[in-house]
Amino acid sequence: MARLRDGQAKHMVLMVWGQAAEVASSNGLLVLRLLSIVLLVLANGFFVSAEFALVGSRRSKLEQLAEEGNGVARLVMAQQDHLDRYIAASQLGITLASLLLGALAEPTFTAIIQPPVVYGATKLFGAFPTLAQFAPTISHTLGFALSYFIVTTLHIVLGEQAPKVFAIRSAEQVALFIARPLQIFSLVFSWIIRFLDWLTGFVLGLFGVHGSSGHHGPPTLEELRMMVQASGKGGVLEQDEQQLLINVFDFGSRAAYQVMVPRTDVATITADSTVSEFLELFKATGHTRFPVLGAGGVDDVVGIVSAKDLLVALSDDTLAFDQPLSPLVRPAFFRPDSKHVADLLHEMQREHVRMSVLIDEYGGMAGIATLEDLVEEIVGELDDELDTGTHDIETIDERTAVVDGLMRIEEANEGLKLDLPSGEYETIAGFILEKLGRLPLPDEQLQFEGSVFTVLEMQGPRIARVEIKH
Fold first, then answer.
1. More confident residue, 142 or 470
2. Range 393-469 classified under CATH 3.30.70.270
3. Stated pTM of the model
4. Beta strand residue intervals within 250-379, DSSP E
5. Which end of the chain is more exposed for a tag (fewer CB within 10 A), N or C?
């Protein structure tokens, strides 16, 4: 009986193997089929990498290569200018390769895998006569499942994932490699690709998506900011370099009132002041330029006076210490406080002025802005030998610091790792006034999301110094 079962098993294996051989040889030799499968997997990977490389290639890098005489780089840029067409070509190639791979690979691998599976199943269930009748069904199912698993794995890993990751990481190199073959494929199947391109545009039009099919435009300011931050995290940029670039991005979006010295902190001098009074103010503040006020007070700015002009006059003996400053007063450079900082800097450079008097919507002086103030928005604080102020943040311990009430919200968030919201205010003092809804008293506290703000010093109605515990 055992010999009979062995004979039946061998007969079944020979039958299955014969069927498998017939399947494997239906379109040629088994080796040729396997070679065709490898080529189809590679073709699928080629079109996948082509799609991602065209989308991910940096235009600036390609332009640089084209300027150096690289003709393939110019071809890649031309393909990016008609991106939808070449994406359609890539998708057509992926679809054709995947369909042929599925039609060829599954029966081929089934033919290879099924015979040993059938033999094993027959031997296993041969000892159990009641189960032996299910051996063919189980063996065929297992053989199909294994072959399907192998084909799917090859397709995903070698035909999809690996080419995709490689194209993302080396987009320009891959784009240069695939450009000419992709161009030839696009020409051969141009009529199909044009139809697919048109049909895609028609479908998108149904959803209200219109526009150029070219490569995406230059990166937006927010995208550039994200790129700089990613470069900083990746170690490509030092922290100072990263902050410098972020400051440049922010510079053009800021208004003058966000960076000015407010009128409450502006040191001024009257038009009838003497040279001696100017020198006393110069010694007390360390500033070299002052707005000159007329009879109307702080909103009546009649000009600007500088220490340089005074020193020249004193050295030429054209002015005495007890004489008025009026001969040295120059016309003031007035600009609205809503003007963008970048435009203000450009105009001050063009007019060769170093101080701008900023006017609010009611015609009064909102504050002043100097060239140094504007440049500091990009490069950070510039302290010189005449600066008498202290640093903006006075650290008490790791959770406590004292700041000037005029410190800007974004500076406090960055320097103290806070997360204060923006609003109708620019400074810590404005934030406290917004939350309290009134003028605070000295030593009064405000609690906000785990942080405690204590008003240490008031200068009249102005919040001068604030302690922050976070």
1. 470
2. no
3. 0.54
4. 261-262, 269-270, 289-293, 301-306, 334-336, 355-359, 365-370
5. N
